Amino acid sequence: MTTTAAKKVGIAGAIVGAASAGVAAVALAKRYAVGRIRLRPDAEAGEPFGELRGRERTLITSDGVALHVEVDGPEDAPLTIVFSHGYCLNMESWHYQRQALREQHRIVLWDQRSHGRSQMAPADQSTIDRLGDDLAEVIDTFVPGPCVLVGHSMGGMTMMALADRHPSLFDDKIRGAALIATSAGRLAELTLGLPALLSKAVHLVAPPTVSLLGRRGALVDKTRHAGSDIAFLITRYIGFGDSRNVSPTLVDFVETMIRATPTEVVANFYSALMNHDKLSALGVLDDVPTAIMVGDRDWLTPPDHSKAIAAALPRAQLTEVPGTSHLIQLERPDAVNEALQDLLKRVDT
């Protein structure tokens, strides 16, 4: 080997070594940061997340998808509360609401198609309108009397699709509604707290990137299932407004739900969420008592989106919870439960 070639090899080796050392240092720093977070006092360490169970049922939808449904609470209760969860979550995300309401109220929870324990649907059947039809079938099958609908994020959009496609249900069957951290549209305009130029670049790059990941979903999932410190930190920062004090056990619980959602499902519903526009359907909900809730630090469905819903529903009650982000029902369960109890008092059964 010539002297020049040896120098090049030496330089290349030094660069690779430095890069490897840098990556190792970053990984060590993340592990140290997460380790310190986990050592803090955790009031929810003993909380039975994911352990609450009801009477398990299966619904085969009109297009052949098997939905996992659970019925909880007394069967003879005069009112049923139907909970619809958000994107990349499942029915367990209603842990604290189920815990608070199951003694006195009949509760129906369901995993939306392709989420939780429900069957994965094809891409062309992964739409918000189809979720609205699913909810109509859940109500028809499992709700014998009057009901109140509660939806978080994509679950709120599901309720809007129901109002758009099955408005007659709001004449007698549906007596109240709660829209939590959701949007009637314009999600493609979100800044996510980024400067305008960078936000525009993210929205430009995101659709093809998500589509590509979806096509290689099985490969991506092999790495996701291992979990990571990065996923923990991202979930903690984006999902919770008070990220410094949120329970590590709660963060792990949420991150596990997200990680259990196949990458293909994330990709299949992404465009449906970005194209969601149901502002014109909101008038149907104005016929029933409606509660709207949002955290003032919600980056995914910001307060302006809830305010737009409230403007279309002048009789609705809007609650903006300070210091709270998108997972409001888990981060501030007492505030959400109080709002739901108030809504139930206003419902005519």
Automatic annotation (TrEMBL):
GO molecular function, one term: catalytic activity
Top-rank taxon: Bacteria
AB hydrolase-1 domain boundaries: 81-333
SUPFAM superfamilies the UniProt entry points to: alpha/beta-Hydrolases
Record PANTHER family: HYDROLASE ALPHA/BETA FOLD FAMILY (PTHR43194), PEROXISOMAL MEMBRANE PROTEIN LPX1 (PTHR43194:SF2)
Protein name per its UniProtKB record: Pimeloyl-ACP methyl ester carboxylesterase
Provenance organism: Nonomuraea soli
Lineage of the species this protein comes from: Bacteria, Bacillati, Actinomycetota, Actinomycetes, Streptosporangiales
